[in-house]
Amino acid sequence: MIECSHVYKRYKNGTNALYDLNFSVDQGEFVYIIGPTGSGKSTLIKLLDAEETPTKGDVRVVGLDVGNLKNRQVPIYRRNIGVVFQDYRLLPTKTVFENVAYALEVINMNKKQIRKRVNEVLEVVSLNEKGNSFPHELSGGQQQRVAIARAIANRPKVLIADEPTGNLDPSKSDEIMKLLQKINTEYGTTILMVTHDLTIVNRHRKRTVVLQRGHIIADLPEGGYVQHDQ
Amino acid sequence: MISRPISEGFRGVARHWAMSISSIIAVTTTLIIISLFLIFSYHMQLFTKSVESSMQIYAGVDYDYEDDEDRIRAEIEALDEVKTVKYYTKDEEYEFFLSQYDDEQTREVFSPYKEDNPLHDAFYVEAKDGKQIQDLSKKIGNIEGIYMTNYGGQSTVNMVSAMSKIRRFGGFLVIFLGLLAIFLIQNTIKLTIYARQDEIAIMRNVGATNSFIRAPFVMEGIITGTLGALVPIALTIYGYYYVYEKTGGVLISNMFRLVRPNPFVLYLAGILLAIGVLVGLIGSFMSVTRYLRWKR
C-alpha cells in the first residue's frame, strides 16, 4: 500500500528533513509514526500527500509513483487517499453535510448517491444529527469526526492522519482512536497515523515507526514505545 | 454539472455576505463615477463637434463670374477637405441680411439696395475637420472667380485647436478612470479571495481539480459585478431622465444640448453592466488562479 525506498528530502532553504527512508506498509495495517518535533514526520506526510516531492528516492502509494505526479494529476491522486489533519481543515462556510459532500462532488458523484453516502459516513462517526450545523458550532472532537467522515467518504484504501488528536483532550482522543480502529478493522482501510502522543501509542498498541532527525531509528511490529531519554 | 458553479456561486455570495457587500460597494462607487464621466465626456465630444461644424467659410463670387456657379462649385467640391457646399444668390443673401433686423424702419433704410444689390453670390463651405479651415479658405480663395473668402480669422483657428484638446483630454480621463476603477475592483476581489485561501487549500486537499475550485469563485465574481452594477444603472437611468426633463434638454445655451435619453441611457446601462461583469469575472479568475498556482 505504502512504500518508501531510499527517500531523501532536502528543502530549498537547505534543511535536510529525511535521509534514506525505507519502509513499507501493507494493506490493512495500522501504523504509528512517532518522533519529536523536527524529526521529519510532517515532511513524510507532505510526501505521501503529494504536497512535496522527494529530492531522491521513490514514494509509492496505492501503486502510484507519488513523487513524480504532474501538478494536474495531484488532485486525482488525492481521491485515492483520505487525509485527516490536526486542525481539521473543514470549510468554514459549509455545513457538516456539505463538507463531507464536497469530497464526493469532486469525483462527480450524482446528488442522490452523495446524499446516501454522506448520511452513511456521518452515521459511522455518529454525527448524523449535526448535518446542518456549521463547523464552528461543533466541539473539536466533533469537528475531527467530520474530517474523518470526509476522509473516508469515497472509500479510500489508505487513510493518513496527521496528529489527529493533537488538539483534543485525552477522553476525546480516545474517541477518535476508537473510530480510527473501527475504520481499520471494519473497512480494511490502511491507516498511517503520525502522532507524538505516547499515551495513545502505548494504550492502543500498533506497529510503531520511530523517526529522529530524518532517520528511522526503530520499527517496532508490536508497538509499545518507551521513551528512553528524559 | 454546469448548474453546480452557478448555485455554488450564489451560495458563496450569500455565505460570505460581509465580504460580498464590500466588493459590491467597491463596484458600485467606481461604476457611478465612470457613468458620470461617460456622460460628461460624451457631451463634451458632441458639443465641440457641433461648435466645429458650425464654423464655415464664406466665399464671395466676383460680379464678373456670376454665371460660372456650376464650374466654381465643382472646383470647390473637388477639394479634399470639403464636407458640404451651399450656394446662395445675392438676392437670397439680401433677404438673409434683412432678416437680421426686426424693425421696419431699418429695413426701409436698406430697401434701395434691393434693386442695386451690392452683395455677392456666395458659397458657404464646411470643412471636414475644423483644423483645416485656414488652409481650405486659402485654396478656395485661389479659385478663379472668387473675389474673397472669410473664415473668422485666427481666433477661429485657436478655438478649433482648443476644442480638440478638450476632447482628447476628456477621452484620456475616461480611459484613465476606467483603468483605475478596474484596478480598484480587482484589488477588492483579490482581498476577499485572499481571505479565503485556506478554503482553496482545503479544497485541493480533498482532491478538487483547479477548474472545479475556480468555477464557483468566478461565478461569485460575476454575481458580485452584476449586483454592483445595479445601483449605478438605476441612478444613471433615473438621474439622466430627471435632469433631461428638468432642463428640457438644454444646458446654458442652445449650443449645449443633452442627448435624447431613450437609446443613450440604455447604451450607458449596457456599458456599466458589461464593465461590472467583466471586471468581476477577470478579477476573480486571476486571483483564484494565483493561489492555485502556489499550491501543489
Report on this structure.
- The complex is a heterodimer of chains A (about 230) and B (about 300).
- Helix content of chain A is about 30%, strand content about 25%.
- Chain A has helices spanning about 40-50, 75-80, 95-105, 110-125, 140-150, 170-185, 200-205, and strands at about 1-10, 15-25, 30-35, 55-60, 65, 80-85, 160, 190-195, 205-210, 215-220.
- In chain A, strands 6-7-8-3-9-10 form a six-stranded mixed sheet, sandwiched between helices.
- In chain A, helix 6 (about 170-185) links the parallel strand 7 (about 160) and strand 8 (about 190-195).
- Chain B contains ten helices and six strands, in the order ααβαβααβαβαααββα.
- Chain B is elongated, with a radius of gyration of 30 Å.
- Chain B starts with a helix and ends with a helix.
- The model of chain B has no long low-confidence stretch (mean pLDDT about 85).
- By secondary structure, chain B is of the alpha+beta class.
- Chain B has two domains: about 5-50 and about 160-295, no CATH class; about 55-150, Alpha-Beta Plaits (2-Layer Sandwich).
- The chains are: A alpha/beta (about 230), B alpha+beta (about 300).
- The interface of A and B includes residues 72, 85 and 91 of A.
Could you name the key traits of this structure?
heterodimer; A: 230 residues; alpha/beta; six-stranded mixed sheet; 7 helices; B: 296 residues; alpha+beta; Alpha-Beta Plaits; 2 domains; four-stranded antiparallel sheet; two-stranded antiparallel sheet; 6 strands
Write the layout of secondary structure elements.
The complex is a heterodimer of chains A (230) and B (296).
Chain A: E1 2-10, E2 16-25, E3 30-34, H1 41-48, E4 56-61, E5 64-65, H2 74-78, E6 81-84, H3 96-105, H4 111-124, H5 140-152, E7 158-162, H6 170-187, E8 190-195, H7 198-203, E9 207-212, E10 215-220
Parallel strand pairs in A: 3-8, 3-9, 6-7, 7-8
Antiparallel strand pairs in A: 1-2, 1-4, 4-5, 9-10
Helix pairs in contact in A: 3-4, 3-5, 4-5, 5-6
Chain B: H1 3-15, H2 17-53, E1 57-61, H3 69-77, E2 82-88, H4 90-99, H5 104-110, E3 122-127, H6 133-141, E4 146-150, H7 154-194, H8 197-205, H9 210-247, E5 250-251, E6 256-257, H10 261-294
Antiparallel strand pairs in B: 1-3, 1-4, 2-3, 5-6
Helix pairs in contact in B: 1-2, 1-9, 2-7, 2-9, 2-10, 7-10, 9-10
